[in-house]
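Here is an idea for our session: we take a single protein and study its fold together. Which protein we use is up to you, so please pick one and set it down. Once you have written the record down, we can walk along the chain together:
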Amino acid sequence: MKFRITKEEFANALGVAAGSVATKSSIEILKGIFLRASDGKIEAVGYDCVKYVRAVATASVSEAGSFVVDTKLSALIARLPEGTEVECTASDGILTVCCENGTYKMSVMSAEDYPELPEVEKDFSFTVSARQLIDVLRTIEHAAQPYCPGMARPMLAAIKLEYNSNSKTFRGVALDGYRASVAEIIVDSESDVDFSAIVPSDTMRKLSKIIDKNAEVTISCSGPRSGNHHVSFETQDVYVVSGVINGEYLDYDKVFQIDPSIVVAVDKKAFIESCERVTLIACSKSGTPTSISLSFSKTGIKIVGRTALGGAEEFLDNIEYICAPADTDKEFVIGFNKQYLLDAVKVINDDTFRMKLEAPLKQAVIEPNESQDDLKQKHLVLPVRLPKQ
């Protein structure tokens, strides 16, 4: 095998694939990058037994072939000077990399020993802009646990994707048992078939980092006849295939249904800054933020954090009640994990967010104060029981 390629093209393809190899696998070949050269391009693949990522780059191929190489190749190419032309030759189990100022040799493994990659029977398929897909994923991904094969409750480490052919809406949902997030967009798709898949969260986090935001993404899934085992995401340069999680997903619409006694509009920037100042002082010895309490009165919100090491409180008065407490002389006090609360507030696509509260030990719903046309979202955070003072 022999090909020439620019450093930039090669580094990008190798970097995408290297991030998806099975670094902790007992199967040695899965720790490497599968590399194939043919028809004026090279393909770099990383596979971790849950998903695989294939990146394509333009190259001048004089001799086709394939092999598996250590991820050190990715690190090497990334460190070459900008604009470097790279020539790669593989023969007799050795890869030789030549450029203007250096020659590097590495052993390679036979491509014949690489496992067969799963393919998707594209029974369902629709297209969405990468920018829209990234917006949805980055709005909800904080609410899903990291995925680990064999985990007891994989639904808590998954993102559910839904496409409604009637309303032409694409929705993403994530929940981890303590919080939930939903984001929805209208897509310009001609598909007339509904789509639903539950995908490991790590696949979606990886996807949001590697796709070009200016690209179009075709999302496809196997139908019921094939067991609905895989879903794919395809752009011109990147192809991602992932296993799906089979089973019943939580009825998330139901958990968002509350009968609020308080609905309040809060300045997003001021709230975040106040919470972060309070928890800077009121954190545990290990530095882990503790819970905070929000006390709602007719004049504003008191944000309080206390530990054995110290405490802090701030008062926020730039709020607006849409539905005020029934008893305005009595404070409504509720506690939250500070990180879970701020994760939801920070992704709100509005300068003001709306918080809906029913009772101190019932879930809170957080959403933009003004309806957004481009990206609709809502978040749920469970409260924590506050220690008695």
About this structure: Residues 276 and 338 are 9 Å apart (CA to CA). The mean pLDDT is 92. Residues 124-252 form a domain with the DNA Polymerase III; Chain A, domain 2 fold (CATH 3.10.150.10).
